[in-house]
């Protein structure tokens, strides 16, 4: 079959792509920027079954470039992390544009992954997810809807939030919504369901709730996580935490953004339990318990094999949809801090140090100062440092890296380029290059800042003493540190 996959570089799409290819399908990946597609991850046999097309669901004209001779399409996009208000209008626009395109194709099925929406009163987030189902039906094509509650897998937003809370807080004063019930599902089961309903007529025009075998309160989920990690934790629910205060609580304690925290809190006030059953009659699989899903996630993490992460979704308003255009670092009207370190050790070893920067390893010097900068960024509504990184040793264009975004990670050219997503009165890039010259090599570390008005210039001169303290030693340690 010829299958269109939207969100091919997203958390779900990146994992679903190899499954579809291995099942023998020809897959057309719809991406907003081809430069984000990970060609190096796949061999020639794989790539012969993959076609990458650029299109933007908010631009109907760009959809004309997509093929019409497809058999099915996956709709795996959402605007949840972009803002707290207004995202429902964005989701309506993109879903209707997609439906308009699909209407003129040969597709026989649309497959959509949404959220469980069985409560009488729904949050704006869940109501929007439910409305998308109706928008997709305007395509006049059969729509298969899979509704999931919390998805547990390495790199998923839900898993990372639970992980942050339990790992960092021995004692929690938590909101009363921790008593709400949920039916979590492992990412592996989600993939099996998504692939399993493809071209199944019994699934056409059907809505299925999907979940694991466990029905738990959010409090029980936190305790079970602690049990898996062999941690002693105490959680006390208090009624004084309003939804807004709860959102700030999640935002400051975990790696989540504030819009995502606010939308999640609004949704967590309701029970999300499987009611629309019947999926087992279409796709019969072994369902993993919550504990088993956690153990699988940690297995992937320990193997340094996290395929995708929710933080890789581009949420910075300054990027919009063309963030890869920031690869061309400006020269004029900018401030620069350039450090060059000559070395004689293996360039490969130094490059491995570069590809391990950030996350749990840190920034090779002044980690406490980096953490303070991350905390200050959180205070003003930024992303902070808690996002970490998807993999300890692997970097790809589009990955989040603490409060940076990876624009380029070219191993052949030995070049790593980062763009700042922290709150700044301007724009900032951090670039690393390794130049080889015979037995000697040189690490070039370059920080570039393009100020916005007088405040931008004042900011640069204000942080200059910290740059003089951090950047020289940082470059030296990148060159000299030996990875264990």
Summarize the structure.
This protein is an alpha/beta fold and 484 residues long. It contains 13 helices and 19 strands. A hairpin with a 4-residue loop joins strand 16 and strand 17.
End-to-end distance: 46 Å
Number of strands: 19
Radius of gyration: 23 Å
Which structural class best describes the helix and strand composition?
Answer: alpha/beta
Report strand order across the widest sheet: 3-2-1-4-5-6-11
Strand content: 15-25%
- List the total number of helices: 13
Helix content: 25-40%
Question: What descriptive keywords fit this protein?
Answer:
alpha/beta; seven-stranded parallel β-sheet; six-stranded antiparallel β-sheet; globular
Question: Could you characterize the architecture of this molecule?
Answer:
The chain is of the alpha/beta class. It has 13 helices and 19 strands. Strands 3-2-1-4-5-6-11 form a seven-stranded parallel β-sheet, sandwiched between helices. Strands 14-19-18-17-16-15 form a six-stranded antiparallel β-sheet, covered by helices on one side. Strands 7-10 form a two-stranded parallel ribbon. β17 and β18 form a beta hairpin. It starts with a strand and ends with a helix. About 2% of the residues have low confidence.
